[in-house]
Amino acid sequence: xxxxxxxxxxxxxxxxxxxxxxxxxxxxxxxxxxxxxxxxxxxxxxxxxxxxxxxxxxxxxxxxxxxxxxxxxxxxxxxxxxxxxxxxxxxxxxxxxxxxxxxxxxxxxxxxxxxxxxxxxxxxxxxxxxxxxxxxxxxxxxxxxxxxxxxxxxxxxxxxxxxxxxxxxxxxxxxxxxxxxxxxxxxxxxxxxxxxxxxxxxxxxxxxxxxxxxxxxxxxxxxxxxxxxxxxxxxxxxxxxxxxxxxxxxxxxxx
Length: 255
Hints:
Helices cover 42% and strands 23% of the residues. The protein starts with a strand and ends with a helix. Helix 3 (95-104) packs across helix 5 (119-139), helix 3 (95-104) runs parallel beside helix 6 (154-166) and helix 7 (184-201) packs parallel to helix 8. The chain is an alpha/beta fold and 255 residues long.
């Protein structure tokens, strides 16, 4: 049984079709790629899964749960987390604080417990700090815990956003162009990191990125969108050799 099962979702903005009957499956433990030219509908697809947008038709199920009636925060509580193409860090906060903020929505303490520093609040804060330090150590950011997020290099900011997404202990991680702004070495390092994250945290991933070296290296299966419709899907080797994919997206040189 798939962890994420998207069946025939369509959405229009006025007279423009953003997605037209797109279906996709992600099984537990997989890293699945979603690729296509700019404007193909990849980010719209992510927004439908996370609840930012509601499709006009179709269904989205996560671990057997119907996601369409659920708001964004309820989907997060089910175990869906996301990173963004444009970094969404709190630049004026430290690296550690950026991770701690991510735990607030999942904390069992309330406003009164925080205000009066009740034992529940202190326990939850210690638990969040321990989890944050463990993630910083894993990501190689422990020595930058006190630095402002805005002062980090882009590569480290990308790692920090990954770490913030991992704070909620997700089962499905949606990655929206995590290699954006990275050089070749940083992208290669990111590929290794994503594979280690899958192994260490047992996280399933759906990855959108234009860097084909990254996608081809880490993904078990790839779906290709073109003008909001599914062009093809398959293993990296089969997608790379598909004539329609070469024509619409990859180009002869990449293939």
